[in-house]
Design brief:
The structure holds two protein chains of two kinds. Chain A is α/β, with parallel strands linked by helices. Chain A is 59% helix and 10% strand. Helices cover 45% and strands 14% of the residues of chain B. Chain B has helices at residues 3-11, 28-34, 40-46, 56-59, 99-103, 117-126, 139-148, 150-159, 161-184, 206-226, 243-248, 265-272, 286-290, 293-307, 327-340; strands spanning 51-53, 63-67, 72-75, 80-82, 90-93, 131-137, 189-193, 197-198, 201-202, 231-234, 253-255, 277-279, 313-314. The chains are: A alpha/beta, B alpha/beta.
């Protein structure tokens, strides 16, 4: 049974009450609950509910962001404690960036927030990343999934060029590729050879998990 | 019938001699490919556009260069803005980092005469012939992107609504004075751009839309109408949930009935066609960017079939003619509007 304090923490994340989330996290630690359990039984169920509400159109960007901030405030307390004890919790490794020519980052940042909240270790390589930038990061790192975002219609071809470059560099088998952004469609994702398309941050979480299950 | 008459008639939900066409903007690269060497004004005239929107960020905002190599400038509100492939830059660092910054904040002065030089030139060349359309970027857009930054703005909507009211008021004051100045110079209509929605629905809840976005929009619309010009609003995205609120501000027209967000032009015409002029809907994503000219032609025909009967439709792209649009597709779109858009419509 989930301790009551973690139910309260989950509720604080859903409602975006940062001070409460911090308070309940500290209380949980004082009660002797392990960091990893606070994350798994308090924070993740909380942010998942937020994602579901966003996916259903009941939550919007403001609610999503304040919930994300509440969760991050709790993580800021838990993570140093876990590190000092040599504990860690990671679902998988995710590389993310916006494609060449595109400097918009709010969509990417929301996806990062949701991924982190769901236990992913995320490396953000930033905006306006040329194909060789993605290739270099994939080559040098150890990632399960590479996510690329393009907000503009005009930068969509850059996503295709990036996937092509990843293939040419012989890295395609090393990584699963997800794509998102306002003008992107399932049809486009299939056409350029991405593994998954996600229409919003919540779908990105669900599909990332599905791809990870395929890998493992 | 002149272009301006066509546009005004359509905005008033009446039937002109043919379905009008104009754009919020036509990228230089596309213009250059269609009519090499032509200025923007020559392009509008030679291609027979019925009007042009004098976009505030291009025509009347001031910028200071910060980093030439990275194409970073400081906009007139104090935000760092970076230019990518498009004419309009993207804010990367807002002007206001804490509420304290706001106490000593000095907004730009909309009464500086130089701001209206571009508009005056368009009016001088086209007055009485083509619609010269005044423009402001909406309060929500400027206050969010340039003043507070996206994330801080959205968070403050929940955690510090008074801050939102303060920044909105600063921008609204600027915009109202800018609108008055532009319309007194003789602009024929007013365009207010700035997205209230994204592909999946409104950016903020209908409750927050009503509380924070609609009041400022309404004031700007009211001022335009009180100065006897029609007013239209542009917002991308799926606006189904906030459509009644938008209509309730008194706007005459709505652009672009975004097909990429699943907005159905025919449905919107059925529900709102008596109260609104519909504008846009020709998909500037796949259709104009990489489909064939024949597919463009079909999409224009279908749009006119859905929204053109009885007037009240201005055929435009679903955002603007951006740099990724195939020039031949845009030329095909203009031709198709002429071929299919003559009243009385006969599209069988």
């Amino acid at each position: 049974m989930v301790p009551e304090i973690l139910e309260s923490l989950k509720d604080a994340v859903i409602k975006g009450k940062r001070d409460e989330a911090v308070g309940f996290t500290k209380e949980a630690i004082q009660e002797g609950i392990k960091g990893i359990d606070i994350i798994k039984e308090g924070l993740i169920p909380g942010i998942r509910t937020v994602g579901e509400l966003f996916g259903k159109g009941e939550y919007y960007l403001p609610e999503l962001l304040v919930s994300g901030k509440s969760m991050q405030s709790a993580l800021d307390i838990i993570e140093p404690m876990m590190t000092s004890k040599g504990e860690s919790f990671t679902v998988g490794n995710f590389l993310i960036g916006t494609v060449k020519g595109d400097i918009h980052d709010i969509g990417k940042n929301i996806v990062i927030m949701m991924l982190k909240g769901n236990g992913w270790n995320v490396t953000d390589i930033g905006v306006d990343i040329p194909p060789e930038g993605f290739c270099e990061a994939i080559h040098d790192g150890d990632y399960h999934i590479c996510g690329m975002s393009t907000l503009l219609t005009v930068t969509m071809p850059a996503a295709a060029e990036t996937i092509e470059a990843i293939k040419e560099a012989g890295l395609r088998d090393k990584i699963k590729i997800m794509i998102g952004g306002a003008p992107v469609t399932q049809e486009f994702a299939e056409k350029i050879g991405a593994d998954e398309y996600a229409k919003d941050a919540w779908e990105a979480i669900i599909k990332a998990q599905r791809l990870l299950d395929e890998i493992k | 019938m002149t272009g301006v008459e066509r546009i005004i008639k359509a905005l008033k939900r009446e039937e002109p001699d043919m379905v009008p066409h104009m754009e919020l903007g036509v990228d230089r690269k596309v213009r250059e490919a269609i009519l090499p060497g032509a200025s923007y004004k020559d392009f509008v005239e030679k291609m027979g556009l019925d009007g042009n929107v004098i976009f505030d960020k291009v025509a009347s905002w001031s910028y200071e260069t910060v980093d030439e190599t990275k194409r970073i400038v400081r906009d007139q509100w104090g935000a760092l803005t970076q230019f990518g492939s498009e004419t309009i830059g993207h804010p990367i660092e807002p002007a206001i980092k804490s509420e304290k910054d706001l106490d000593g904040y000095v907004p730009p002065d909309p009464d500086e005469e130089w701001r209206y030089e571009s508009l005056k030139k368009w009016i001088k060349r086209f007055k009485g012939d083509r619609a010269v359309i005044a423009h402001v970027t909406d309060v929500f857009d400027i206050a969010r992107e340039s003043l507070l930054g996206d994330v801080a703005y959205y968070e403050a909507m929940i955690e510090n609504p008074d801050l939102i009211d303060r920044v909105n008021k600063i921008v609204l004051d600027y915009n109202l004075r800018s609108i008055k100045n532009q319309l007194e110079l003789g602009a024929d209509a007013l365009a207010i751009t700035g997205d209230f929605a994204m592909t999946n629905g409104p950016l903020v809840s209908p409750k927050f839309t009503a509380r924070f976005l609609i009041p400022a929009l309404k004031e700007q619309v009211r001022l335009g109408l009180s100065l006897n010009v029609p007013v239209f609003k542009h917002t991308d995205g799926d606006i189904t949930k906030i459509m009644d609120m938008l209509v309730g501000t008194g706007i005459d027209g709505l652009h672009p009935i975004d097909p990429m967000a699943g907005m159905d032009l025919g449905e919107v015409k059925k529900q709102y066609g008596k109260r609104l002029c519909l504008m846009g809907n020709i998909n500037c994503g796949p259709t104009l960017s990489w489909k064939s000219e024949e597919e463009v032609r079909q999409e224009v025909k279908e749009a006119i079939e859905k929204a053109g009967y009885g007037g009240g439709y201005i055929c435009m792209s679903s955002n603007s003619i951006h740099s990724g649009v195939k020039p031949e597709n845009y030329a095909a779109m203009i031709k198709a509007i002429r071929d299919f858009g003559q009243y009385p419509l006969d599209l069988d």
